[in-house]
Amino acid sequence: MQSIQELERRASPGDLPHALAYSDQALWVGTRDTKELYRIAVDTWSSERVGVCPGTPWGMTADHDGLWVTCGETEDDTRRIRRFRFGLGWNDSWTDCPGDEGSYLAFDGTRVYLVQWHRHRVLPMDEQLQPTGEIRLPHGCVGAAFAGTRLFLITTDDENGEETSPHYLSSLEIESGVCRDLYTFGYAARSLAYDGTTLWTNHRKVNTLVRFRLPD
Fold it and tell me: Is the pTM for the entire model greater than 0.90?
């Protein structure tokens, strides 16, 4: 299986970049240990520290006016979906993840999808962020993003394998539930974001953001 076609690598503004989203010519990055949220203007690579997330930002996706963020909160890493609105900040309310499990998020233009790593599944959510079904996956998932109507995933069988466990760029067909492994990463990639033409991920171990070509 061929490797992804990298286009560029950029230094992360914060250590251990994890959650990623893209909106209006900017990448949004949430860091794992410090829980900081950054906005990066892609054309100049100038970054702004927006603040600190309510918990560890495990997953993130953007819609037209804000971010949806899966946060791990409290000493027990309780999983909640939080709302961040551009220009306004964090909402006070949240939605608990089903079964206290949830990590990466994707938005198809209408609805949010939540990844549950341990259950190897993707959950389509309604407007109240309640699951309306499930799509089973052959691997665990450590990144998700829609590019048009196509849902791309980063999948692996060992999320703790770091650089030794194979990580795949996979494509999931929502209607049929068929998941295909397309390319491999040469490292433990985390999170996905689509900028309209290409995909972004994190090479977290070396604090680097990676842009790569969208598969045909």
Answer: yes
Is 62 contained in some domain? yes
Share of the chain above pLDDT 90, in %: 93
Q: What average pLDDT does this structure show over 34-62?
A: 97
pLDDT for the residue 1: 85
Domain count for the chain, please give it.
Answer: 1
Q: Given the structure tokens 């109240």, which residue do they identify?
A: 128
For residue 131, the domain's CATH number is 2.120.10.30
142 is a domain residue: yes
Beta bridge partners, 28, equal 21, 39
pLDDT of 162 reads 61
Per residue in 160-184, pLDDT tens?
Answer: 666 668 999 999 999 999 999 999 9
Are 132 and 117 within 8 A, CB to CB? no
The answer to whether position 1 is within a domain reads no
User: Which of 176, 174, 180, 201 lies closest to 190, judged by CA?
Assistant: 201
Expressed as residue numbers, the domain containing 56 is 6-213
43 is written with which tokens?
């054309």
The H or E element spanning position 10 is: strand 6-11
Residue 130 to residue 110: CA distance in whole angstroms: 14
**Amino acid letter, residue 154:** I
Q: Would you call 212 exposed, middle or buried from its count of C-beta atoms within 10 A (0-12, 13-18, 19+)? A: buried
- Judge whether 173 lies within some domain: yes
